[in-house]
Design a protein that fits this description.
About 70% of the residues lie in helices and about 0% in strands. By secondary structure, it is mostly helical. Helix 4 packs antiparallel against helix 5.
Amino acid sequence: MNRKYNINNIEDLHLQVRLLKSEYTAKGDALVGDSKKYLHQFTINGFIKKYATPSAFLKIDDKFNISSKVLSMALPLVMNSTFFKGSGLVTKALVSLASGKLGKSLDAEHLSAIFNSVTGWFSKTKRTKEKPPLEVDYGIPPDSETY
């Protein structure tokens, strides 16, 4: 990049030096800001915001139905290793069959709805005390005829 400057005296030179320094610092600040944004994509929080949304699951799920396949395999293992740990072979087989079928029927929409309802339960328990509505003052004195 070949720049040509019209510099005739020392004031023009100092002005051009100040302009170039300000351009240099502005480009440096922009480069630092862009690199921070770029690196922020690769943090754990950035990955969660990008890929752990219901819409992202649905895009993957439309063709492959990954969530139902994972749940149909993982749910029987979890159920048999936690809730039905000491039960017999027939009970574990029936639980595996039922939870496998249940896992196949669940997809990303159902999972996000279940998650939202569970978080709704916990958020409702925090807001049990509601404040009574405040009286609204319309600017009418209480001793007037319209009050």
